[in-house]
Amino acid sequence: TDLESIEDSSYDFLLASHILEHVANPLRALAEFHRVVRPNGYLLAAVPNRKHTFDRRRPVTSFAHLEADLVANMGDNDMTHLEEILSLHDVEMDPRAGPPEEFRARCMRNAELRCMHHHVFDLPLLDRALRHTGFRPLYGSDIWFIHILMFARRIS
Question: What is the spatial distance between Cα 42 and Cα 152, in angstroms, rounded to a whole number?
């Protein structure tokens, strides 16, 4: 969420693959992506498709929730979603999670390890988040098994 070492409008293209779900403040991250992409530059964002991942039991995050995180200036040390993650994470689809006590311990080190999915996206939520931060989605798809992809252009 902090790309301060990168100059404004310095990239023609940015690939954000499986990043947004790991940050507590995705709209702030997208605003930073917008800042570093040149006008009319492109962003390809990929997030997990919950239907085919260990997030399948979790609800899609609401856009209002993303806005609230932005307004609250939520930091990446946020643990708001911990109990939801622990109770709804499908460990059978995530063999690396290990036993519940190991998974909890790993989640407690999230600021260091970035293992938790703070938010769960679907195609409409990703589209709305991109539009909110000054991107115009050009193509989106959720047919790539575990990926939801959105190709967008910076419009402002």
Answer: 6
Residue of 52, 18, 20, 21 lying closest to 143 (CA atoms): 52
Q: Give the number of other Cβ atoms within 10 Å of residue 100's Cβ.
A: 11
First to last CA, the chain: 19
pLDDT in tens, 117-148: 999 999 999 999 999 999 999 999 998 789 99
Cβ partners under 8 Å of residue 42, min gap 6: 12, 13, 14, 151, 152, 153, 154
The whole-number pLDDT of residue 137 equals 98
The predicted-structure confidence for 14-24, as pLDDT tens digits, reads as follows 999 999 999 99
| Residue 43 host element (H or E) | strand 37-48
Nearest to 18 by CA among 150, 153, 152, 154: 150
To the question of pTM greater than 0.85 for the whole model, the response is: yes
